[in-house]
């Protein structure tokens, strides 16, 4: 507990903690200094110069995001000179930016637009040459539009510092600086894992998901198709935010109703397939445990993690579960089991997934996941795209009567629901693995040790006298550090869950943008979204995957048993080393602490 | 030397080398061999003396004869007449107007050197920079020995503080204080850096200092390392200075061999080594934090300060960064004492400063003068004034970060504060003299074009703002200036100064704002009357044939667009609608019958 | 690659291994990129990849560094740089058609290098030789009053000189010089 110091802001004295920046102190006191490149989870850039303030004794303005407070400091945050300077700085950014707000995906939700409005820019003083770059539409998942980039550097820092993917860099310099992958290669050919965190932190529309809403609207109007949709756990926990609601509201019923109104014939729930995944994966784990298979086993439901594995950690491919992700399993059973049951030609099924994730767009296109010449999922749209489609079709998601999902791929256990939170897959797997292994009911089915936002979580559970050590990492940077531990000592853990996005899927690259008074990747938001799923779990009567009656029916009628040849044909896949080879700086790999 | 009849010193600096100094020397040596007197003479090579316009340079002793502007055909004459017949060739000796004694013994009878006080450049032109023995003979490494055997680190810092030395890279921060802050940090891993990334166009002080006397920089750094508790020094030097790099490498090798670098220096517990890191063509890497990032193998982009490098610098460790010239002063301060040093200069700016005098002045080159010397003394005294009968218009100090000072500031005494008060800066020492034939608006545009090109692109005001300033200035020089442009430049310029992240951006508007302040009429003429009084902005020029035209037709023949018409022996005329203002006719006319209007 | 180049490349690889063992391998990056450019005249992509793998520095980071510093060439530079003056006088006298002739004759766009590594084609701002417009500069030599035929003739002169040099070197080798 350090002694408080006194600073003066706009002529009023305040007592504040030392060892913080002016911006941090001001935020706590209710002075919101405008900012653009600053993000609390990323290193400090001090690049945009929007957060400048006057400090007595300093000749020039200082960046409040970087400048530390000291005893006796006199600060002004809102003088006329500062307002003019900030206004001019924002105008300079606008003068090198496309003037197409009305047709831009982020119209109404763009940090630059908000700042420009708050600065009161009415006239342009400095217009001149504008940068011209091609859009990069090469990736299935994430597209780039460098003309909209304001060079805040958040994407580069996110990709390097938090995700440890290091795909992006600022290249060239001065007026010609552009953010791009190495060699300006197309995103689709780069080491990008498609996690979409760059989209989450981008203040403008320089990064966006690949948009399939046009195509989907067209297909929804095609009478020859049977339209089937599934949606992820995390989507229901966050889609309300896109409609102005508080974070953490579970809009499951309303979303199902809205999707039906959009034109889907069958609304299924990815949580069903989550239960299915647990059946397969827990069985796979136990088989390895009992027959000396490769351990630790690592989960495989995160698509960004899968791309990361093949590029950065090909040596760990034998460790990874061969299970497909819940989304892909759902797609597979839709076009086989469901199609047969309803006597529909699977080629006439339009299988759509609403996901919190951008990498799922990449996953759905993976050739390894095809079966019988078909893709399991034909179109993936993010939570954002779905929200836009619902609004565009005039559907009132907020007030619509909630509805139930369709059978036979609709009902789910609580274990399936918590898949969206970091640690959820591990917890769900433990609930089933314990009972499969020991034959007894696991009483304390809420495994606190793997819950929460700590970057790397460890826990253990004793099954029939055998200690099973588990670990959970969220964010590819934490995954990197955890996997380094595994490389040093493969016997340290038995089972590992890795989620590509910070917070787990609730923080996915396709989730709604941060609202006006919050920031991207806000921990509170992530916690609230995860809590919605934990509450959903608590409210269900069936809380274990193996107790899901429709899953049991699926096995009885089609798959026979976990890891059967049929299961292997449709529910499992394989991986191989891919290029470009990913490189992580040596000193990042060996960091002992968590990333933020 | 006793048994040699003559000692010859050939200047081997880059300026003389460009004027074929090596070829001259080779021819000279052939002549010596032809006359079989090569064993009678001792030949030395030296680094840049600073008299670059008069190269190649040869000094013959005894007699202190300073030969300059030498051509190959002069070699036989000097050998025959001076070395063999004992009669110096007077037509080749550099003559100046006045007799000054200070450097007479070394450089001979020359006002150019007479007004200078060479401390940082004390050995340049005197020793062979590739021979450590020469450096040792000039009391080299004596300061280091004194420091290691007789002084504590704290005493060294006190001495540097007492001397009043301020950073010579441009910021002018008290060197002793910087050393003290870095020494105070408790981290055992610390670094010493020499900033040799001299990027100002027209500045070559650091290059010459390193080419002429690399050991003084090394010695300064080793002493600095001792004072702050560091084991590792790094010299960050531009890749565009290959000769300087080569000399540094040799100097480091020799210093290691003689025990001045490496483990247990001079038998004490102190170990220190120096490594060279090359730059790669980025002016912004002269900024401390950008330089550090460049050494760390990253893009050379600055970061906000605090934390200052003395607390967290290279690899996050306490780091002491000083400019080449600052380091070069350290051994002198230790040997001759802070008291002596602090008596030179002004109350706030002690010691001397090296300037690179260039532009419209008779004697261009390097000059080192005590702080407090007036601009007039440098430009008209040492510099010899404006050639060709032209009038002085302004002097630009501090390179692209500095300002243009008109005539009323000529009696400003050079020191950090007074130059700032006059509206310019000391900078690293560039000093460009401008005469009436230079357009101030074009000058400002030239500097902004440079800083725009060199901007790292990190912060909005510099990246976008200097671009917009450049666009406005370009329009003005093309005759497309609009009312309100000056006010826009002032508004943008002031914002960029106050809001930019680093010194490059903060000082980029200086040439613009100072020329607007001191030469506003020129801007107004460009904008409102579409006139350039210096006749430099071609878009605002007209070429008009005058009455003294004899009708020779030379202009008509060279005009690439057939804009000239006229018959033989009759006054010609230029069609302004076709004229593309290339100026070929102006150059071709032998009668000065074409005027730029 | 010549013998000299092969030796230098080996030295670079040794330097990279040494850098790996340093506490801060990334601080050797720029020095190593300089050495690579010394051997190849520019930074080939394969070399940048190799540096990335060996020093464990992400390729994107190396690309960011290589593009930041103007000293580094990202494209090969030919033995002769052909600059066509595009100043007003030259333009009026037909510089554009000189440029087209060169593009056709050399088979490259502006800024690119011929596949035999002999020529890089560039545009230049006014070279100050307006009296003999249109003008091109090859290395330091100025050629003026060009037309299509003259331009091609000049290019062929350089090609001939390069071929003669090559055959002279070849002859030396055949004569068994060590």
Question: Which features would summarize this protein structure in a list?
Answer:
heterotrimer; B: 597 residues; alpha/beta; Glutaredoxin; Rossmann fold; de novo design (two linked rop proteins); 4 domains; 5-stranded mixed β-sheet; 4-stranded mixed β-sheet; 25 helices; 14% strand; C: 178 residues; alpha+beta; 7 helices; 10% strand
Please, could you describe this protein's structure?
- The complex is a heterotrimer of chains A (596), B (597) and C (178).
- With 596 residues, chain A is an alpha/beta fold.
- Helix content of chain A is 35%, strand content 13%.
- Chain A has 20 helices and 17 strands.
- In chain A, the strands form 5 sheets. A 5-stranded mixed beta sheet of chain A has the order 2-1-5-3-4, covered by helices on one side. Chain A has a 4-stranded parallel beta sheet with strand order 11-10-13-14, with helices on both faces.
- In chain A, α12 (359-364) links the parallel β13 (349-355) and β14 (379-382).
- The longest helix of chain B has 18 residues, at 460-477.
- Residues 97-102 of chain B have low confidence and may be disordered.
- In chain B, the strands form 5 sheets. Chain B has a 5-stranded mixed beta sheet with strand order 10-9-13-11-12. A 4-stranded mixed beta sheet of chain B has the order 2-1-3-4, with no helix packed on it. Chain B has a 4-stranded parallel beta sheet with strand order 7-6-5-8, sandwiched between helices.
- Chain B has 25 helices and 17 strands.
- Chain C is an alpha+beta fold and 178 residues long.
- Chain C has 7 helices and 4 strands.
- In chain C, α1 runs antiparallel to α2 and α2 packs antiparallel against α3.
- Chain C starts with a helix and ends with a helix.
- The mean pLDDT of chain C is 88.
- Chains in contact: A-B, A-C, B-C.
- Chain A binds chain C through residues 160, 166-173, 180-184, 191, 580-586, and chain C through 25-26, 45, 48, 52-53, 56-64, 67-68.
């Amino acid at each position: 507990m350090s002694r408080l110091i006194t600073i003066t802001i706009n002529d009023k004295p305040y007592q504040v903690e030392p060892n913080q920046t002016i911006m941090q102190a001001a935020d706590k006191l209710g002075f919101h200094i405008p900012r653009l490149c600053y993000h609390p989870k990323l290193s400090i850039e001090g690049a945009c110069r929007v957060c400048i303030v006057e400090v007595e004794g300093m000749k020039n303005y200082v960046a409040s995001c970087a400048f530390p407070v000291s005893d006796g400091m006199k600060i002004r945050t809102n003088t006329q000179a500062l307002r003019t300077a900030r206004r001019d700085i924002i105008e300079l950014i606008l003068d090198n930016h496309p003037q197409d707000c009305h047709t831009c995906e982020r119209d109404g939700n763009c940090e630059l637009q908000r700042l420009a409005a708050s600065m009161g820019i009415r006239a342009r003083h400095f217009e001149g040459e504008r940068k011209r770059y091609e859009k990069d539409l090469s990736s299935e998942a994430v597209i780039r539009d460098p003309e909209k980039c304001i060079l805040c550097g958040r994407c580069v820092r996110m990709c390097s510092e938090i995700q440890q993917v290091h795909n992006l860099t600022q290249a060239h310099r001065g007026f010609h600086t552009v953010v791009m992958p190495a060699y300006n290669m197309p995103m689709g050919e780069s080491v990008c894992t498609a996690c979409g965190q760059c989209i989450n932190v981008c203040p403008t529309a320089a990064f966006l998901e690949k948009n399939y809403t046009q195509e989907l609207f067209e297909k929804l109007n095609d009478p020859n198709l049977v339209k089937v949709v599934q949606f992820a756990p995390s989507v229901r926990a966050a889609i309300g935010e896109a409609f102005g609601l508080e974070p953490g509201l579970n809009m499951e019923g309303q979303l199902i109703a809205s999707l039906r109104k959009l034109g889907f014939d069958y609304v299924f729930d990815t949580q069903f397939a989550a239960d299915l995944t647990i059946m397969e994966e827990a069985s796979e784990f136990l088989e390895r445990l009992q027959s000396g298979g490769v351990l630790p086993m690592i989960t495989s439901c995160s698509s960004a993690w899968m791309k990361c594995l093949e590029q950065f950690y090909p040596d760990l491919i034998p460790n990874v579960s061969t299970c497909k992700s819940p989304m892909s399993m759902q797609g597979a059973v839709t076009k086989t089991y469901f199609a047969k049951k309803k006597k529909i030609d699977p080629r006439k099924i339009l299988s759509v997934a609403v996901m919190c994730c951008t990498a799922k767009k990449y996953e759905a296109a993976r050739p390894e996941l095809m079966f019988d010449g078909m893709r399991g999922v034909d179109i993936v749209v993010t939570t954002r795209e779905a929200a836009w489609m619902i609004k565009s079709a005039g559907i009132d998601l907020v007030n619509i009567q909630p509805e139930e999902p369709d059978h036979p791929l609709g009902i789910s256990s609580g274990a399936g629901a918590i898949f969206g939170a970091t640690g959820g897959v591990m917890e769900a797997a433990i609930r089933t693995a314990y009972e499969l292994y020991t034959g007894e009911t696991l009483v304390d089915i809420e495994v606190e040790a793997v819950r929460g936002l700590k970057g790397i979580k460890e826990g253990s559970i004793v099954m029939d006298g055998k200690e099973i050590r588990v670990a959970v990492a969220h964010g590819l940077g934490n995954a990197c550090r955890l996997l380094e531990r595994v490389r040093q000592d493969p016997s340290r853990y038995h089972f590992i869950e890795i989620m590509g996005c910070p917070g787990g899927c609730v923080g996915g690259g396709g989730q709604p943008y941060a609202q006006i008074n919050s920031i991207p990747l806000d921990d509170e938001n992530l916690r609230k979204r995860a809590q919605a799923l934990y509450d959903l779990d608590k409210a269900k009567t069936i809380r274990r995957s193996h107790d899901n009656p429709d899953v049991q029916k699926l096995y009885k009628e089609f798959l026979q048993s976990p890891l059967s040849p049929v299961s292997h044909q449709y529910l499992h896949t394989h991986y191989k080393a891919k290029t470009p080879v990913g490189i992580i700086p040596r000193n990042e790999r060996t960091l002992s602490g968590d990333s933020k | 030397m006793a048994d040699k009849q003559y000692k010859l010193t050939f200047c081997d600096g880059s300026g003389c080398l460009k004027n074929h100094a090596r070829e001259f020397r080779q021819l000279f040596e052939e002549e010596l061999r032809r006359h079989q007197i090569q064993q009678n003479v001792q030949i030395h090579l030296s680094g840049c003396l600073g008299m670059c316009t008069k190269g190649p340079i040869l000094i013959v002793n005894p007699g202190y004869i300073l030969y300059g502007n030498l051509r190959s055909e002069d070699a036989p004459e000097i050998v025959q007449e001076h070395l063999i017949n004992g009669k110096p060739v007077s037509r080749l000796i550099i003559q100046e107007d006045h007799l000054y004694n200070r450097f007479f013994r070394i450089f001979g009878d020359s006002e150019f050197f007479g007004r200078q006080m060479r401390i940082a450049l004390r050995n340049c032109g005197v020793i062979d920079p590739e021979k450590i023995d020469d450096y040792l003979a000039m009391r080299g490494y004596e300061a280091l020995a004194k420091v290691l055997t007789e002084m504590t680190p704290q005493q060294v810092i006190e001495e540097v503080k007492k001397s009043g030395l301020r950073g010579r890279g441009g910021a002018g921060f008290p060197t002793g204080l910087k050393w003290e802050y870095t020494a105070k940090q408790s981290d055992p891993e610390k670094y010493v850096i020499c900033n040799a990334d001299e990027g100002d166009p027209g500045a070559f002080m650091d290059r010459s200092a390193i080419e002429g006397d690399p050991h003084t920089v090394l010695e300064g750094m080793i002493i600095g390392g001792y004072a702050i508790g560091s084991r590792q020094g790094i010299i960050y030097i531009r890749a565009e200075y290959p000769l300087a790099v080569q000399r540094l490498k040799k100097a480091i090798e020799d210093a290691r061999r003689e025990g001045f670098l490496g483990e247990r220096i001079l038998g004490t517990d102190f170990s220190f080594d120096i490594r060279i890191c090359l730059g790669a063509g980025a002016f912004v890497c002269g900024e401390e934090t950008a330089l550090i990032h460049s050494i760390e193998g990253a893009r050379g982009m600055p970061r906000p300060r605090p934390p200052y490098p003395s607390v967290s610098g290279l690899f996050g460790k306490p780091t002491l960064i000083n400019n080449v010239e600052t380091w070069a002063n350290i051994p002198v301060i230790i040997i001759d004492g802070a008291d002596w040093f602090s008596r030179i200069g002004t109350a706030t700016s002690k010691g001397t400063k090296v300037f690179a005098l260039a532009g419209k002045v008779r004697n261009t080159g390097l000059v080192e003068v005590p702080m407090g010397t007036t601009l007039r003394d440098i430009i008209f005294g040492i510099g010899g004034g404006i050639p060709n009968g032209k009038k002085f218009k302004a002097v630009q100090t501090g390179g692209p970060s500095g300002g243009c000072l008109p005539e009323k500031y000529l009696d400003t005494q050079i020191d950090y504060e007074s130059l700032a008060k006059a509206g310019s800066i000391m900078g690293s020492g560039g000093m460009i003299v401008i005469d009436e034939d230079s357009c101030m608006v074009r000058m400002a545009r030239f500097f902004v074009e440079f800083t725009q090109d060199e901007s790292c692109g990190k912060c909005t005001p510099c990246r976008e703002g200097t671009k917009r300033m450049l666009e406005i200035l370009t329009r003005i020089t093309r005759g497309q200036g609009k009312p309100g442009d000056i006010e826009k430049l002032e508004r943008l310029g002031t914002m960029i100064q106050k809001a930019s992240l680093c010194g490059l951006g903060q000082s980029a508007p200086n040439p613009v704002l100072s020329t607007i302040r001191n030469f506003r009429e020129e801007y107004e003429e460009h904008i409102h009357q579409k006139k350039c009084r210096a006749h430099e902005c071609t878009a605002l020029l007209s070429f008009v044939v005058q009455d003294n035209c004899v009708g020779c037709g030379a202009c008509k023949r060279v005009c690439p667009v057939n804009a000239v018409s006229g018959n033989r022996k009759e006054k010609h005329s230029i069609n302004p609608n076709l004229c593309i203002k290339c100026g070929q006719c102006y150059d071709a006319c032998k009668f000065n019958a074409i005027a730029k209007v | 690659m010549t013998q000299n180049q092969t030796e230098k490349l080996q030295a670079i690889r040794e330097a990279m291994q040494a850098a790996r063992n340093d506490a801060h391998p990334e601080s050797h990056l720029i020095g190593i990129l300089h050495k690579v450019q010394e051997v190849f005249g520019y930074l080939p992509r394969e070399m940048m990849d190799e540096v990335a793998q060996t020093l464990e520095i992400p390729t994107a980071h190396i690309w960011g560094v290589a593009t930041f510093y103007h000293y580094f060439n990202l494209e090969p530079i030919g033995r002769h740089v052909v600059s066509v003056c595009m100043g007003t006088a030259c333009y009026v006298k037909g510089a554009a058609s000189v440029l087209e002739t060169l593009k056709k004759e050399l088979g490259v766009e502006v800024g690119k290098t011929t596949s035999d590594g002999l020529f890089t084609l560039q545009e230049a701002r006014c070279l100050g030789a307006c009296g003999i417009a249109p003008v091109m500069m090859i290395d330091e030599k100025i050629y003026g009053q060009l037309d299509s035929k003259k331009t091609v003739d000049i290019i062929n002169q350089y090609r001939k000189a390069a071929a003669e040099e090559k055959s002279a070197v070849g002859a030396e080798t055949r004569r068994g010089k060590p």
